[in-house]
From TrEMBL:
Record domain Cation/H(+) antiporter central: where: 439-568
Domain Cation/H(+) antiporter C-terminal: 574-712
Organism phylogeny: Eukaryota, Viridiplantae, Streptophyta, Embryophyta, Tracheophyta
Organism (species): Acorus calamus (Sweet flag)
Gene: CHX15
Protein name as annotated: Cation/H(+) antiporter 15
GO cellular component: a single term: chloroplast envelope
Length: 713
C-alpha cells in the first residue's frame, strides 16, 4: 500500500486564472504530475510516466526535424530552419492543437512541467555555450565600415516597425495595450542574433570570406545593443532601480571575481593538457546559479548564463573543453524541445510568452515570420556569394612569371611545428639575396574549437613590407614562428622578410584565408606540407586544406613531402633533382629550380624525359632554353635528356639517377595522359601529388623529400 501511494500522481497547482494588466487573459489550472517511471511496458501505457514521455518527445522531435531537413535539402535550407519548422509541425500550430488525440497522448497537460523545465534548462545552457564561443574583443576592433553597417541594420528596421505600428493603430477597433512593450518588440526584431549568423555562415562555408568576417563583427555589435535593451527592460518591468542594481552587482562579481579565477585555472593547466573535471563542473553549475539569479531579478535565465559564457575565455583549453562537454547533448537533445537550434529571437519570444506579454497566437506569428525571413535569406546568401571571389580578384601569379630580380613572395602553411626546420631549409634553397629577396607569409593553422566565429590574426604590423614591425605577445610564444623570425634576422633583414599570421577556422574553410592572403599580397607560391607525416600519422587539417588550396589558389601551389630535409643548406650540401616531362606544372617546377641554382650550396640535376607532350612541345622547348641560358656558367647544374619507351623505363631511369638527392622537384599534372604516365595513374593513391609525385612518395623507400608543383592556369 505504501508503495502504491509513493508511485501515485501528485496534484500540484500551476497558477490561476486572471486578466492581466496588459489585456491578456491568463488561464492556468491544476495538473497531476505523472509518476517518474513505469512498472513495466505491458502493465499500462508507458507514456503515463514522465521519463518515458520526455524521451518519446525528444525522439519524436529529432526524427521529425530530420525528415523536414531531408525534404527541404534541394532548397538549400539550413538546419536551424528545418528544426524550427519541425517544431511548428509538432507544436500548437499544426499537430499539437488543443483538444486533438495527438495532443492528449504525446503532449498531455500533465507533462508540461517536465517538458518546459527541460526545455528551459537546454535553452539556458545553449545560450551559455554561445557566450563561451564569442570573443568580445571583436566589438572593440570594429572598423568604420562595421559601425556604419551595424547602425543602419539597427535603425532602419526599428523606424520601419514604429512607422508601420503608428500607421496601422488608427485602424484598430481598440488602442494597443502597453505601448512601451511595442517599442521593445521593435528593438528586439531589429537585432540580428550572432548564433544565427555564425551557424548559417559555417554551414555554407562562408565564415572565412570577407562577407563572413564583416557579418560576424557587425552582428556582435548588434548583440551589445541587445544587452543594453535587456537592462532597460528589467528596469521598466520591475519599476524599481533595485532590480537593475542587483543585476549590475552580480555582473561586477562575475567580472572581478569569476574572470580572474578562470584565468588562473587556464594558467595552471599544462600546455596541451586538459582542464580538470572539477573546474568544468563548477563553471557549469555557476552559470546555472547566475541564470536563476537573473530570473529572480526580473530578467531571463538565459541572460545570466550568457554573460557568464561571455566572460569565460574562448578557445582552448577552457572554452573548447566546455563546448566539447556540453554542446552535443544541449543542442541535439535538449534544444529541439523549444525549437531553438540557432533561433536566438525565439529565446526572447519564449521569455515574453512566459511573462504573459504575448499570447500563444502572437508567439506563433513571430515564430513563423522569423523562420520565413531566415528561410528566404539563407539560400540567397549561399547562391549569390562566391567564397573564392576575393581570391580571384587579381591576376594569376607564378614563379615562372617572377623575374630573377623581383621579390619572390611565398605563403607557407604550418599546422605541425615538426616540419618547420625542413621548410626553412627549403626556403633557404630558393637563394634569397638582397638582389633576389623573398617575403615569407607564415600562416599558422588552428582548428576552430570553443569559439563561435573564425578569426584571422596578423602578428606583425607591416603594411608596406618595408618596416620590420615587432611581433605581438602571442607570436613571441610560438616556437616555429620564433624560428622563422630568427632565420630572417640571420639574413640581416636584407634578403628575407617574415610576416606571421594565424588562421583560426574549421578545417573545411581554412583554405579561404590562405587563398585570400595569397591574392591580396600578390603571392607567387603557396607551400602546403603533405598531410602524411614521417611517422605515418595523418594531419587532418592539411588533408582537408590541400585539395581546396589546389582548386582555389590564385597562384602556384607546392605540396611539400618532408622526408628529413633538415641539414642546413651549406656549400654543396643540398642535392636537388628535377624530373621534367613537359606541361605547365613541370615548367613551373623548372623555374623554381632555376632560382635554386643560384645558391652556392645547391646542386641541380635536371632529367628531361622525351618525347614530351607534342601539343605543348614549343613551350617546353622555350622553357628549357631559358633554363640552360640562366645556368650556363654554373658548374653545379647538370642537364640531360633521356629517351624512354614506356613506364618501366621511366621508373628505371628515375632509380638510376638517384645520387643521394635531398629534394626532388616535379610538376603535378600532365597536359593529357601520355604513354609515359598512363600506367602509373591506375596505381596512384594520393591524387593531390599527381602520378609522378605519388610514385616518388610511395615507391622510392622514403629516401627523398619531394616538392610537387602546380602552376595556376
Amino acid at each position: 500500500m505504501a508503495n502504491a501511494t509513493a508511485n501515485a500522481p501528485i496534484p500540484i497547482p500551476i497558477g490561476n486564472s486572471s486578466l492581466g494588466g496588459d489585456g491578456i487573459f491568463n488561464i492556468s489550472s491544476c495538473h497531476l504530475v505523472p509518476k517518474v517511471t513505469n512498472a513495466a511496458f505491458w502493465n499500462g501505457n508507458p507514456l503515463e510516466s514522465s521519463f518515458s514521455l520526455l524521451m518519446f518527445q525528444i525522439c519524436l522531435m529529432f526524427f521529425v526535424s530530420r525528415a523536414v531537413r531531408f525534404l527541404l535539402k534541394p532548397l538549400r535550407q539550413s538546419r536551424m530552419v528545418t528544426d524550427t519548422i519541425g517544431g511548428i509541425i509538432l507544436g500548437p500550430t499544426v499537430l499539437g492543437r488543443s483538444g486533438t488525440a495527438f495532443t492528449s497522448t504525446v503532449f498531455p497537460a500533465s507533462g508540461t512541467v517536465v517538458l518546459r523545465t527541460t526545455a528551459l534548462l537546454g535553452m539556458m545552457y545553449f545560450i551559455f555555450i554561445v557566450g563561451v564561443k564569442m570573443d568580445p574583443k571583436t566589438i572593440t576592433v570594429s572598423n568604420r565600415r562595421t559601425l556604419i553597417i551595424s547602425s543602419v541594420n539597427l535603425t532602419l528596421p526599428f523606424i520601419a516597425f514604429i512607422t508601420t505600428q503608428l500607421f496601422l493603430s488608427r485602424y484598430l477597433p481598440e488602442p494597443l495595450p502597453n505601448p512601451k512593450f511595442l517599442i521593445l518588440v521593435a528593438a528586439t526584431l531589429s537585432i540580428t542574433g550572432l548564433p544565427n549568423v555564425v551557424y548559417i555562415l559555417t554551414e555554407f562555408k562562408l565564415a572565412n570570406t570577407e562577407l563572413g568576417h564583416l557579418a560576424v563583427s557587425t552582428t556582435m555589435m548588434n548583440d551589445a545593443v541587445g544587452w543594453v535593451i535587456m537592462l532597460i527592460f528589467i528596469v521598466l518591468r520591475g519599476r524599481s532601480w533595485m532590480s537593475l542594481a542587483s543585476v549590475v552587482a552580480i555582473m561586477a562579481f562575475i567580472v572581478c571575481v569569476y574572470r580572474p579565477w578562470v584565468e588562473k585555472v587556464i594558467r595552471e593547466t599544462p600546455q596541451g593538457g586538459r582542464v580538470s573535471e572539477s573546474h568544468l563542473i563548477a563553471i557549469i553549475l555557476f552559470a546555472g546559479l547566475v541564470g536563476f539569479y537573473f530570473d529572480m531579478m526580473g530578467g531571463d535565465i538565459s541572460d545570466g548564463a550568457f554573460f557568464v559564457g561571455l566572460v569565460t575565455p574562448d578557445g582552448p583549453p577552457l572554452g573548447s573543453a566546455l563546448v566539447e562537454k556540453m554542446e552535443a547533448i544541449v543542442e541535439v537533445v535538449m534544444m529541439p524541445l523549444v525549437f531553438l537550434w540557432g533561433i536566438v529571437e525565439v529565446v526572447v519570444f519564449l521569455f515574453w510568452l512566459n511573462k504573459k506579454l504575448i499570447d500563444p497566437d502572437l508567439f506563433a506569428v513571430l515564430m513563423l515570420s522569423t523562420t520565413a525571413m531566415t528561410a528566404i535569406s539563407t539560400p540567397l546568401v549561399s547562391i549569390l556569394q562566391q567564397p573564392t571571389s576575393r581570391a580571384k580578384r587579381f591576376s594569376a601569379c607564378a614563379v615562372q612569371k617572377c623575374l630573377s630580380t623581383m621579390e619572390l613572395r611565398i605563403v607557407v602553411c604550418v599546422h605541425n611545428e615538426d616540419v618547420a626546420p625542413s621548410l626553412l631549409n627549403l626556403l633557404e634553397s630558393t637563394n634569397p639575396t638582397p638582389e633576389n629577396p623573398i617575403c615569407i607569409y607564415v600562416v599558422r593553422l588552428v582548428q576552430l574549437l570553443g569559439r563561435s566565429a573564425p578569426i584571422f590574426i596578423t602578428h606583425r604590423d607591416n603594411n608596406n613590407n618595408t618596416d620590420n614591425g615587432a611581433l605581438d605577445a602571442t607570436a613571441s610564444t610560438i616556437p616555429f614562428i620564433k624560428a622563422f623570425i630568427k632565420y630572417e634576422r640571420s639574413k640581416a633583414g636584407q634578403s628575407v622578410l617574415v610576416l606571421p599570421f594565424t588562421s583560426v577556422a574549421p578545417f573545411e574553410t581554412m583554405h579561404q584565408d590562405v587563398c585570400a592572403l595569397a591574392s591580396e599580397r600578390h603571392v607567387s607560391l603557396v607551400i602546403v606540407p603533405f598531410h602524411r607525416q614521417r611517422g605515418g600519422a595523418t594531419d587532418q587539417a592539411l588533408k582537408s586544406i590541400t585539395p581546396r588550396v589546389l582548386s582555389d589558389a590564385p597562384c602556384s601551389v607546392g605540396i611539400f613531402v618532408d622526408r628529413g630535409l633538415v641539414r642546413p643548406v651549406g656549400p654543396g650540401s643540398c642535392r636537388v633533382a628535377v624530373f621534367f616531362f613537359g606541361g605547365p606544372d613541370d615548367r613551373e617546377a623548372l623555374a623554381l629550380a632555376s632560382r635554386m641554382a643560384g645558391h652556392p650550396g645547391v646542386m641541380i640535376n635536371v632529367t628531361r624525359f622525351v618525347p614530351s607532350d607534342e601539343a605543348d612541345a614549343y613551350n617546353d622547348e622555350e622553357t628549357i632554353k631559358a633554363f640552360k641560358w640562366g645556368v650556363k656558367e654554373k658548374e653545379r647544374v647538370v642537364y640531360r635528356e633521356v629517351e624512354v619507351r614506356g613506364v618501366q623505363e621511366t621508373v628505371e631511369v628515375m632509380r638510376m639517377t638517384d645520387d643521394g638527392w635531398d629534394l626532388v622537384v616535379v610538376g603535378r599534372r600532365r597536359e593529357k595522359e601520355s604513354w609515359l604516365t598512363e600506367g602509373l595513374a591506375e596505381w596512384s593513391e594520393w591524387p593531390e601529388l599527381g602520378v609522378i609525385g605519388d610514385m616518388l612518395y610511395s615507391d622510392f623507400g622514403g629516401a627523398w623529400s619531394v616538392l610537387v608543383v602546380q602552376q595556376h592556369v
